[in-house]
Amino acid sequence: MTIATFFSLLINIAVGIYFARYYPRQVERQFRGRRVPPFFAVLAAILRPIGYLLIIASAGYAVYIGITG
Description:
This protein is mainly alpha-helical. Helices cover about 85% and strands about 0% of the residues. The chain has two helices and no strands.
């Protein structure tokens, strides 16, 4: 695995964590006590699974690169 591939995977996992964990919580905190606008509610609901898929795909690719060299 080259350094570029390592950093690419690291960035992908960081973005996945942001989408899956941080962004939905940030939306909830920002609109606490008020109605969440529909756009932000849908965006938070869509980005959470996309974030987890990005993490899984990046980890799977890292394992694949590790096995095949």
